[in-house]
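Weekly sync, protein design subgroup
Attendees: M.S., D.O., the rotation student, P.L. (late)

Item 1: inverse folding check
M.S. brought a backbone from last month's batch and wanted to see whether the design step gives back something sensible before we order anything. D.O. pointed out we never logged the input encoding, so this time it goes straight into the notes. Structure tokens as presented (385 positions):
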């Protein structure tokens, strides 16, 4: 056999061997694919045989958010707050407690549009602006104007409602800025007993108590107490002291006719602080003296107030449409003070004068308010007045 024939035979054997390998590989791949198909079919059949999995049920409920009241305490606003065409901010009691607010000013400190001012021009008590307008005469207590010149405390306050913009529709004559309504605590049929004690530097001491006790199935009594002492941090001599007592009793709870009697007594005995002298010039600035300096008379400067406020409120609901509320209130506020205001002496640089204004003011208010909030739904139109 020649060399060329040998080479031809080798090529033919190589071609046959490659064909055999390709056929074997194809057979093996088909076998593997068939085995995977059988396994997947068996797994699918096995899953189909299992029982369906039952998941636990999920219950969604609408919880009462204590930070977001949905309705106003004012009976003259008988619709949800979201339906009132006016910006209304409500500061509930829960929020005041968590912020450890101890005064009317502390409770409103985070409300947008409100700024507090000092007692310039002899103005005493809470002096604030709402949306840039003086709101001194736009303070209300349970819907009735509260015009007393005193520093309000929140120990007997359930919530504070701030209505921004002209509010004559709800409160009558007032400024353009809006109105601030304080909601007092009233008796309830659910017994509750609470209190709070605060201690801070400076010295800061404050204690409150809130006791609500049902007497019968329709009568309940509630008493709120407060004692407060606060020395101004970083200042000598100046201090604030006040006491408060607020009882209330309700008759006819849970019936169409309810009568509530409440009384508020709050007294203050302070040593006011008029700060350090102001040095005029360009630019003007406080005098460069120690911050602790007190330029008054520690045994002669004083500020005393005594507030007596009594309220009688009668509510009667005729039906689901008509209701009637009458509020009778008497307020007597006595305020007396003699303070020292340091003034820069332009004639003698480096010396200051002591200006000692003295005032004795008595405010008495007797008011009676009758309103009849009603609502009527007529076909698809809802009418409220």
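Designed sequence read out in the meeting:
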């Amino acid at each position: 056999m020649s060399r060329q024939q040998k080479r031809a035979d080798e090529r033919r054997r190589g071609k046959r061997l490659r064909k055999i390998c390709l056929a074997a590989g194809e057979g093996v791949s088909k076998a593997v694919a068939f085995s995977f198909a059988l396994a997947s079919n068996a797994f699918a059949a096995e899953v189909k045989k299992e029982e369906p999995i039952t998941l636990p049920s999920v219950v969604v409920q609408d919880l009462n958010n204590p930070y977001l009241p949905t309705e106003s305490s004012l009976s003259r606003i008988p619709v949800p707050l979201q339906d009132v065409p006016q910006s209304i901010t409500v500061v509930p009691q829960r929020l005041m407690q968590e912020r450890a607010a101890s005064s009317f000013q502390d409770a409103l400190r985070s409300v947008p549009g409100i700024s507090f001012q000092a007692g310039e021009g002899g103005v005493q008590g809470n002096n604030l602006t709402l949306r840039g307008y003086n709101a001194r005469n736009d303070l209300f207590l349970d819907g009735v104007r509260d015009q007393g010149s005193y520093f309000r405390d929140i120990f007997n306050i359930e919530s504070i409602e701030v209505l921004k913009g002209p509010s004559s529709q709800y409160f009558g004559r007032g400024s353009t800025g809006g109105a601030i309504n304080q909601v007092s605590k009233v008796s309830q049929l659910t017994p509750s007993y609470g209190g709070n004690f605060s201690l801070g530097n400076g010295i800061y001491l404050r204690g409150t108590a809130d006791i609500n006790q049902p007497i019968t199935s329709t009568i309940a009594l509630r008493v709120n107490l407060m004692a407060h002492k606060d020395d101004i941090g970083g200042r000598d001599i100046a201090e604030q002291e006040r006491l408060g007592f607020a009882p209330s009793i309700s008759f006819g709870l849970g019936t169409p006719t309810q009568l509530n009697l409440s009384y508020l007594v709050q007294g203050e005995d302070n040593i006011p602080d008029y700060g350090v002298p102001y040095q005029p010039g360009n630019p003007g600035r406080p005098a460069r003296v120690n911050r602790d300096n007190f330029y008054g008379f520690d045994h002669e400067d004083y500020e005393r107030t005594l507030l007596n406020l009594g309220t009688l409120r009668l509510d009667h609901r005729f039906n689901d449409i008509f209701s009637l509320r009458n509020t009778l209130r008497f307020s007597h506020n006595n305020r007396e003070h003699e303070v020292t205001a340091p003034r820069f002496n332009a004639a003698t640089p480096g010396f200051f004068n002591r200006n000692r204004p003295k005032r004795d003011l008595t405010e008495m208010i007797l008011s009676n308010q009758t309103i009849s909030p009603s609502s009527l739904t007529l076909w698809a139109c809802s009418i409220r007045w």
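Discussion: The two ends are 125 Å apart (CA to CA). The helical segments are 3-49, 93-98, 104-107, 168-171.
Action: P.L. to compare against the previous round before Friday.
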